[in-house]
Amino acid sequence: MTGVNRGEIERFVRGTLGCSCPDEVFQSIAVSHSPAVAGRPPIVQLLVGSRLLIHVVAPPTEMPGDGWIEQLATNGRAARDRHGYNRFRLVIATATPLAAARELAARFSRAVLGDDKAHLHFVCSDQLPAGLELPAPAVQVPSESLRTVAK
Predict the structure, then answer these.
(1) Could you tell me the pTM of the whole model?
(2) Domain boundaries, the chain
């Protein structure tokens, strides 16, 4: 867990994302980075206690309608199921509120229809704990306030 503060991760997961994970889950925290591929943005993956899988991304700078959020939802759920994790949370981090948040939330909801263990969150980039910073700049389009929009 080099470069990542356990307390900061716990505050982020519990406070910002609203997860009610028990204390023992935070004894094991792993962070990894995946580069952008095939139209998918880079991913910072956070695994908390071999139970909670979190993918943190900055949306593409041009908001394509090519299914990137559906791809992230599908791949995250598949990884959660393949490894036996309890939950998957997709976190979209931006410097300012995202104009397309409502549309993205609807697309995510359709992609995970019936799955109450997959969640979408929009957060401000400065809410990310040290070690979870994203390599790509976030979209700078103001709109509605940041919040959890799909559970």
Answers:
(1) 0.84
(2) 6-150
